[in-house]
Design a protein that fits this description.
Elements: H1 7-33, H2 45-53, E1 56-57, E2 64-65, E3 68-69, E4 74-75, E5 92-97, H3 108-114, E6 119-123, E7 137-140, H4 152-168, H5 175-191, E8 198-203, H6 209-213, H7 216-219, E9 222-224, H8 247-261, H9 276-291, H10 294-300
Parallel strand pairs: 5-6, 5-8, 7-8, 7-9
Antiparallel strand pairs: 1-2, 3-4
Helix pairs in contact: 4-5, 9-10
């Protein structure tokens, strides 16, 4: 009597094996198709309804827009603000936008819409002065002088110590007065909080950033470099690697790393809704490309 299994059992096992492989392949494919599927996002039903009804009026300027007004930084009439998520951030964000950056194509506006109390957008060259606050402000920009997010507090503390040292180097002061000043400055430096209070992002194409980055008002700031991640942006910059993030992606990833590396807290989706508009547009444009729906792409653009 043969101990070999019947032929039909072999075929069944092979078919089951193939089925498992196909299922795994499909699951992997779905995950790749939707990079936002694991985010803790609010219901996007309001955006779905707005997309179906088309452009709507901005209640401030009267312009015809899709989802939000990129001039007034407010949602349009058919996207009630009470149906949008509001995100609480651990620090303030300044976004410096290049004057040639097209308002309607900028993702920086998403941050202003979803965290209005924490985000300000400035159009270069009209930007704030940061010199007096360089011990609590940093600029996200890659380069040889950039530090990682986890090292921000250490470098801000060094700046405070250097500022105190510079004050104490004033040899024109009388000895007694200088001694009192030194003691006061030393006490002040111990009391000063080294927590980062504001982070700056530049909103422009890579080729346009140099004009803003070299501005003397930004040159003295601590520079921070993000960890390498791949972009999901549908307007990919020609000739640039896929690690060049859109502005809202850069903001989001900075905050996620800040939460774990600086605040030392477990990340549980606190800032995921910053991608509320971005993730919806990503799927909308991807679906439009697959179906050849040019009208939908026009609405978004």
């Amino acid at each position: 009597m043969s101990l070999n299994p019947p032929i039909f059992l072999k075929e069944k096992e092979e078919n089951n094996s193939k089925f498992v492989e196909i299922q795994h392949s499909q699951t992997t494919s779905i995950a790749a198709e939707d990079p936002f599927q694991n985010l803790c996002l609010a219901s996007q039903e309001v955006l779905q309804k707005a997309q179906q009804s088309g452009r709507s009026k901005c209640l401030q300027c009267g312009g015809s827009r899709m989802f939000y007004c990129y001039t007034c930084y407010v949602p349009v009439e058919n996207v009630p603000i009470e149906q949008m998520p509001l995100v609480k951030l651990p620090l303030k964000i300044d976004i410096i936008k290049h004057p040639n950056e097209t308002d309607g194509k900028s993702t920086a506006i998403h941050a202003k819409l979803l965290a209005p109390e924490f985000v300000n957008i400035y159009t270069y060259p009209c930007i704030p002065e940061y010199e007096e606050k360089d011990h609590e402000v940093a600029l996200v920009f890659p380069g040889p002088k950039s530090v990682s997010i986890k090292d921000i507090s250490f470098h801000l503390q060094k700046r405070i110590q250097n500022n105190v040292k510079d004050k104490n180097d004033d040899t024109d002061k009388p000895f007694i007065k200088r001694k009192k000043t030194e003691e006061q400055d030393s006490n002040d430096s111990k009391c000063q909080d080294t927590t980062l209070k504001k982070i700056i992002f530049i909103d422009s194409t890579w080729n346009q950033t140099n004009k803003i980055f070299t501005d003397e008002r930004l040159q003295g700031l601590l520079q921070v470099e993000l960890k390498t991640r791949k972009t999901c942006f549908w307007r990919h910059q020609k000739g640039k690697p896929d690690t060049f993030l859109s502005t809202i992606e850069a903001i989001y990833y900075f905050l996620v790393d800040y939460h774990t590396d600086i605040l030392k807290e477990k990340y549980q989706g606190q800032y995921d809704n910053l991608l509320f508009f971005y993730s919806f547009m990503y799927q909308l444009i991807k679906n439009a490309k697959c179906s050849g729906d040019k009208e939908t792409r026009k609405l978004i653009h």
